[in-house]
Design goal:
Blueprint lengths: L13 H14 L1 H8 L3 H13 L11 H37 L1
Helix pairs in contact: 1-2, 1-3, 2-3
Length: about 100
């Protein structure tokens, strides 16, 4: 006899994931997973994706900490882009100089 769920790789609709994450925030992940009859680790994965921003659950649904983390990450990414643009400009100048010789 095959263990149920082991060989199935179930695909869930995005909206279902969003609603599941919202339910987990209200009642806790374990209770929500039992209620929805889905593996708790699957739900934890969706919660993690929502936290890092790869599952969009809507801005109003984020906790202040999550919004702060996203804002912080955006700030770091902007700094990184600025540094890379500066380096790109420097390398372009060097490249241009070397082509003229």
């Amino acid at each position: 006899m095959e263990e149920k769920g082991m060989s199935e790789n179930k695909q869930y609709e995005n909206e279902y994931k969003v609603q599941a994450v919202k339910l987990a925030k209200k009642m806790g992940a374990v209770k929500a997973a039992n209620e929805l009859q889905i593996p708790v680790n699957t739900l934890y994965g969706w919660i993690r994706k929502a936290r890092i921003g790869s599952l969009d659950i809507g801005c109003g649904e984020r906790s202040p900490e999550e919004s702060l983390n996203i804002a912080e990450e955006n700030q770091q990414l902007r700094k990184r882009i600025k540094a890379l643009e500066k380096e790109n400009k420097r390398l372009s100048k060097i490249n241009k100089f070397l082509r003229n010789e």
